[in-house]
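TL;DR need structure tokens for one chain.
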Amino acid sequence: MSKAEAVLHLATLLTLVTVPRPHSWTPTQSVIPDTAQAIAFLEFLKSGEDDAARKRGFAVVRGGYWNNERMLKFVDSTGVTFSDVNGDTTWHLSRARIRYQFARRSGAAFAMLVHLAHIYGQPEPEYSKLTFSADGQDLIVTVGNWYRLTFTHRGQSLRASKIEYLMKEG
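>> reply
TL;DR here they are.
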């Protein structure tokens, strides 16, 4: 094991030990070392909504207070594909377009990420239980029965490349 790999494993272990654990995690997390990066992304999203807002019903205006440049570091350089099972809509946004929506605090991608943060922030496992699986070089993270996120390897890092809303409404 190289020094860089050892440091990465240590950082992963420390993240898993120090990240607050209000969520249920599946055993597969222990065998997929990249989960710490995915959890860091979700924790960052969650930080954009204060505790009081998290306890109320969802509203886009109460969340999404992130450092936008830091947020974009989690996003794949090719952009992100978003999908919503309601209406069977799928769209892809470049990083520049995502930056624009975040700056304006509006748009479908912004609203979806604020909602993802709100769902992940709920302590009940039916909302925020994380499951992890690998699909080739990608890491797939499911948040409850609500969202499925795909992270793509870019060097030593994982970047969000697909965010799917799975909860059928109505």
